[in-house]
Amino acid sequence: MQRVRRRDVRAFEVLYDRHHRLVYGLALRLLGEIPSAEDVTQAVFLTLWSVPSSFERGNFPAWVGRVTRNKCLDILRRNTRHPASELTEDIPSSDTPEEAAVARLEAGAVRNALKQIAPEQSTLIELAFFGGFTQQRIAERTGIPLGTVKTRIRAALGHLRRILAEGSIT
Amino acid sequence: MNAHDAMRDNVAVYALGALSADEVAEVRAHLATCNECATEYEHLRRVVGVLALAADEAAPSPALKRRVMDAIRPEARPRIGWAVYASLSVSLAAAAAFAGLYVGAIDRLGTAQSGLQRAITAIGTLSAPSAQRYQVESGEVVRRGSDLYIVLHDVPVTSIGRVYQAWTLARNSKTMRPSVTFEPRGGVVFVRLPLDSRNVVAVAVSVEPAGGSLQPTTKPLFVVRLT
């Protein structure tokens, strides 16, 4: 990213090659159609080139994933289908061991963690994060009472936190 | 379950980004006063922050890479003015998403340019190697020729009845003049100032009452001199 900030086109191309499949895959999953997913992918990387200062430090793939999700939610919100709230793209960094562990996390660890939590919890995480649905829409789609949806989401995130923290130590 | 337990559930859902917009304000107000929930929120936010890594990867068409690389390479752009960016196949959705919806919304010049055209122009300015960049709190001010943009990321959403307002100081002037107001919703916001930047020697942003002020009423988020 330092080279991208110095307008190094080759460095930017390397970033694109490394991360475009994650960006496009996430956008395709959220938007469900190729043209929109490609548009968002293009927008994400153009934003990265135009405002390289928007990423300071931390887990770059996770950051670019948040940027991608927020751009997808912009489109979904415009279509008034899924009025979910955006995620903040910048997460304040601290020099704690937990923060250092998060910075090192890779896709496999996160996927494995999701597989380890109860299906009734992971389903809600998938609907919210990868589907862009609000808790209300999740309750409507699943028939689960809204209060139960909230409690399960909180439990799921708590379990994920513990699993990811434990996994980073081993 | 007591009321605070219910709020803790809402905090988790908020961290996941699954709260409806009308519920967000209540949770934010609570986080501002409850250290326990604020701490838990920060922990959960970090967990949510890495969930994107679990997305299944997919490969787009090779043509997409060509479009992206062409957009950032000045030498790849034809020399016929703003309209040439249409050759980059930037769709309305991509342009609006990229521009954070503010390039069009706050352009007070009242030109005939469409939102897409303004976004395409913004792309050209912001990505040009010749653009002058001035780092500020949470972003930068970018000047290229007569164009002037404020680019901010992750600025807090203003409270109800409050907006962000830009200010400019003209050469040989002693007072800042009011410029456009904007209300970002988070993420990256691009604000184009509707004036010729070549006469501007300083830019500032402050939080003001809705509709803007004639003079700043709060301490500016930043003041930057343009050299």
The level of helicity of chain B is 25-40%
Distance between the termini of chain B: 59 Å
> Could you give the count of β-strands of chain A?
0
Secondary-structure-derived class of chain B: alpha+beta
Please give the largest β-sheet of chain A: none
Order of helices and strands of chain A: HHHHHHHHH
Structure description:
The complex is a heterodimer of chains A (170) and B (227). In chain A, helix 3 (34-50) crosses helix 4 (60-78) and helix 7 (119-130) packs across helix 9 (146-169). With 170 residues, chain A is mainly alpha-helical. Chain A is built from nine helices and no strands. Chain A is 74% helix and 0% strand. Chain B is of the alpha+beta class and 227 residues long. In chain B, 33% of the residues lie in helices and 23% in strands. Chain B contains seven helices and eight strands; from the N terminus they run H-H-H-H-H-H-H-E-E-E-E-E-E-E-E. A four-stranded antiparallel beta sheet of chain B has the order 1-2-3-6, with helices on one face. Chain B has a four-stranded antiparallel beta sheet with strand order 5-4-7-8, with no helix packed on it. The longest helix of chain B is centred in the N-terminal third of the chain and has 15 residues, at 35-49. Chain B is flat. At the A-B interface, helix 2, helix 3, helix 4, helix 5 and helix 6 of A face helix 1, helix 3, helix 4, helix 5 and helix 7 of B.
Q: Key terms for this structure?
A:
heterodimer, A: 170 residues, mainly alpha, globular, B: 227 residues, alpha+beta, 4-stranded antiparallel beta sheet, 7 helices
Quick overview of this protein structure:
With 170 residues, chain A is mainly alpha-helical. Chain A is 74% helix and 0% strand. Chain A is globular.
